[in-house]
Amino acid sequence: MKNLRAGCVLFIATISLCNSQRAPVITYIADDQWIDQGSTVEIGCSVQYAGSEYPVIWSKIGKNNDNVFISTGTSLVLKESRFALLYDGASATYIVLIKDVQESDSGTYQCTVVLSVNNKITATTNLFVRRPPAITDNSTQSIVATEGGSVHMECYATGNPQPIIVWRRENNALLPTGGSSYNGNTIKIHSAHKEDRGTYYCFADNGVGKGDRRNVNLEIEFSPVITAPREKVSQAVNFDMDLECHIEAYPPPQITWTKDQSILSNSKKYKISNFNTADEFTDSTLRITTLDRRQFGEYKCEAINKLGRAEATVYLEEAKNPVCPPACGTAFSSANCHKISLAFITLSFILAISSLKR
Q: Torsions phi, psi of 196, nearest 5?
């Protein structure tokens, strides 16, 4: 009987010793995860046969392979309010909980079981933090180039994953590179034309949030181009007349009107008005009041900027009947102008009859 009891004690002790000598095993480590910035994430590691004899350590591997310890056993080591350690005894799982995830939390997390001074088992998982795009300040905001020169517009953005950069023009106009869109950080125009000026849009997108956009204004400097809507006009004596020219130039040009090589300025006889319809477009009007015969002839509209000059010619000749509007001035309506024209014709007819009777 004693021998039986001794055998049982020895058998039970042997079983306990065998169980206590089973080496710990990491049976589970969380998969790699992509998490949005500001969210909450759990990273789990399950270890069997560790008990209280073998420490289970969570750490984050730094860029230089220097570990930042997060927890040991069921105790949190890292003093960071966003971090917590949870332990599920049923599955022997050690869970690192991170609230309000930041981009700096991205990296490799390591679960380690220390067996001895020179022996340990490890498992790792990666955390990637998604961050919406943000276009950086070293991107082009506006640029001024000379016609015929080269243009480089650059756009860069941060974010995770790395954003894709897409260029477009206002109203989906054709890009100088061809097509309505262009992918890449830099868009190049090898020989710029004035038609290339306008607003370009740089879009940064990585699938996180709404993306980011920057408007890039491209201005092309070019010498003036002038057109006269009416190169030849006529008006009767003692009536007003408007001469017009349309100027396209950048920088904005200096505009002058001349007659017989004399520069005209605002006076009782002349009034010059310039209307800027855009940075590059100007409509210039020369109003001649109460015409006399000395004012008939050739007028020149000239525009000059640092890149060149251009001129347009408008020839004013005498008309037998007044031309209205706008020749009759703003004080007269079209109906009044018509009445004046009839009166002028009637007067001319009466004068002609009178001369015949003589």
A: -80, -10
Give the bridge partners for 188, in sequence order.
152
CA nearest neighbour of 318 among 327, 326, 305: 327
Summarize pLDDT for 150-201 with one digit per residue, the tens: 999 999 999 999 999 999 999 999 999 889 999 999 999 999 999 999 999 9
Residues 6+ apart with CB under 8 A from 261: none
**What span, in angstroms and rounded, lies between the C-alpha atoms of 204 and 213?**
6
Q: Could you tell me whether strands 212-227 and 142-146 are parallel, antiparallel, or unpaired per DSSP bridges?
A: parallel
Q: How many CA atoms lie within 13 A of 190 on its CB side?
A: 2
Given a contact cutoff of 8 angstroms between Cβ atoms, the answer to whether 274 and 255 are in contact is yes
What is the helix (H) or strand (E) element at residue 60, kind and residue range?
Answer: strand 56-61
Q: Are 163 and 143 in contact (CB under 8 A)?
A: no
Question: Has residue 22 got a pLDDT over 90?
Answer: no
Tens of pLDDT along 57-89?
999 998 777 889 999 999 999 999 999 999 999
Cβ atoms 321, 345 nearer than 8 A:
yes
Q: What are phi and psi of 352, to 5 degrees?
A: -65, -40
DSSP state of 295: G
Distances (CA, A) of 11 to 5, 15, 18, 23, 28: 10, 6, 11, 21, 33
> CB-side exposure of 91: number of CA atoms within 13 Å?
12
Pick from 186, 184, 107, 101: nearest CA to 143: 186
